[in-house]
Amino acid sequence: xxxxxxxxxxxxDAATKRDAATAPTSGDASRARPPAADPAAPTAxxxxxxxxxxxxxxxxxxxxxxxxxxxxxxxxxxxxxxPRSTVFRILNTLExxxxxxxxxxxxxxxLGLAVLRLGFEYLASLELTQLGTPLLQRLCDQTGYPxxxxxxxxxxxxxxxxxxxxRPFSSTVSVGTRLPAHATVFGHVLLSDLHLPSLQALYxxxxxxxxxxxxxxxxxxxxxxxxxxxxxxxxxxxxYFEAHIATVGAPVxxxxxxxVAALGITVPSDLLDEPAAGLLLERVRAAAAELSSLLDHxxxxxDARVVPLRRxxx
Length: 314
Known about the structure:
Layout lengths: L8 H14 L3 H6 L10 H6 L4 H10 L11 H8 L3 H13 L3 E4 L4 E4 L1 H13 L1 H17 L3 E7 L2 E8 L14 E3 L4 H7 L4 H7 L16 H14 L2 E4 L6 E9 L5 E10 L5 H21 L20
Antiparallel strand pairs: 1-2, 3-4, 3-8, 4-5, 6-7, 7-8
Helix pairs in contact: 5-6, 8-12
């Protein structure tokens, strides 16, 4: 790994002198103690238990995403509204721990392997993935198609487990892939418990981004589709996100009845006709129901409803 990023000596020296100049002496501290925290003020109480430096470091890591893979220290300082000397110190710490690494000749940084390692350790620790992976393997063996377990993170879906057959299949997703929830079948399954006001709060914009002719373009249209998924309890769809991909999906619920994941398979659209869809749906529903049962969910009679083939996909 390259040498840690260091701020200019003059910046560090100046920051040290400023800190020393503004720090109270022991006499000052005894004469000017801060007022006791108001126990009725939750914000002040919460602040007592936060670590500002850690918070800034995590906020810095959160700046990176699929569209922002590298950032320069000045860009980070500007986005977080922090002094450059503070950003350099945070970067030094994160780089030493492997959470960021230098790129572009040392002028920029990107996420390091420690972030990936932490992410995979998190996924491996989930009871959901531990219990679900063997079921995905069996479903993949039964159908011959990639089997997926997906959760929702805000407006995105995240693939947390995946089993693919050895034969080639055009799929751009892997564990950790994030896709827009409103534009995928798995997303519609995961949004199906939200009523219209909740969807409107999640998607306040007038128009939703569309990827194919089948992607819902408004919250009202999205609600109609997710409500239909909730009524059926599962869905077969084509072309929401990629026109040539179809998805068969069903919800996974825990002991409280909360929708915690979507389970299903992805299939080339031209291979999914009515007879095939019925058989695949039966196997997907069975796998989702079994995983729900392993999470102590008690199935209701509505879980057994049947769905006809519909247009749309993940």
